[in-house]
Specification:
The protein is α/β, with parallel strands linked by helices. The protein has 14 helices and 13 strands. It has a 7-stranded mixed β-sheet with strand order 8-7-9-10-11-12-13, with helices on both faces. A 6-stranded mixed β-sheet has the order 2-3-1-4-5-6, with helices on both faces. A hairpin with a 2-residue loop joins strand 12 (about 390-395) and strand 13 (about 395-400). The protein starts with a helix and ends in a 5-residue tail after the last strand.
Amino acid sequence: MKKRKWSILAMMAAIMMLMLAACNSSTTNNNASTGNNNNGGGGGGETGTVNIGYSGPLSGPAAYYGERTLNGVKMAAEEINNSGGFEVNGKTYKLNIVSLDDKYLPNETAANAKRLVQEHQTPIIFTPHSGGVMALQVFNQTDNFIIAAYTSEPKITQTGNKLTVRIPPRYDGYIPTFTDYAMKRFGKKLAALPTATQYGKDWTEKLLPYWEKQGGEVVYKSSIDFTKDTDFFTIVTNALKEKPDVLFIGGPSEPTAKVAKQARELGFKGGFIIMDQAKLDEMKRVTGSYDMLEGSIGVMPLVESDQPAVPEFVKNYRAKFNEDPGSEAAYNYLALYAFVEAMKAAGTVDDPQAIREHMNDGLKNIPDEKKVYNVPSIGDDGGFESEIVVAAVENGKIVPIELIKQ
């Protein structure tokens, strides 16, 4: 009798457990969403997730450069998420940044992008080098994602690619001012030692003919592969044998600063034309002061900007990353805010073409306190139409230099 009673109780307990399991399995998980709803709809308190891709150098000599571009994206995403996310057609979304290391290699950028789109459905992929951008332009329109291109290379917006957004100003806008300043202050003999990347080659092909057209002479021309070279003594020595007045150098800030430092240690007294990828304030961290960079002309450091939103951005960035931000962090920060506002205007989080078509709305609707740069519009070519601001190092200090327009 007891055995039969216990058997009935065991059966009843088993039935109760099955009923509870069935109830639990039918409960809706309101927090899980990949943001793949084409019309951005939803409701009922459900929060969606929009994955934003990033492929850039997070290891090797350009790692700091890659990390700083990523920092800007991550900081904007964190601010947006902490404020409750953003709403599209009545549904709230938050951002998830999915970052992959491409080691500054275009073939790795392409492989990463395929993975980001296929595994994470990213409508936008940030890429901070021209070689990587060009690799993505082969297939981004067919695979349907926007390239958020942090490169000043003009060629990327001359291809007719409808889903490319160039974030910083074109580098050829710097060349007249850089040339005029360096020639007048130091002389007309130029030695070129830029980065060996495609971006460096293209910069060189623009600058050197212009330099010669202004009456200058190119006395030495080579390049440095920062992915392989760590000691620049031989190449800098060979360049200085030709007695140049000006050295044209550039690439990521840290190795570029090492080139400048080695040139000074070898006795070079002339000026430096600094490609826009390298930043004067970031180079100073390597050289120890601006003394070794005397006579350099390059991009105005962000911390010296008079844009109203900059002080708060700098304060928040310092607190989060324990260093001063540069333009790569600030421009990518601004760009993510623009993309989010474009999604809101377009009424979709996963239609890249519609988002791209509303980029002017996106730029216009960025909150004033987030406008670390003044970018009033995006051009027909897909480039942010931002103001170029130039600075030089004079007597150990950063001074603004008036821009010469072509």
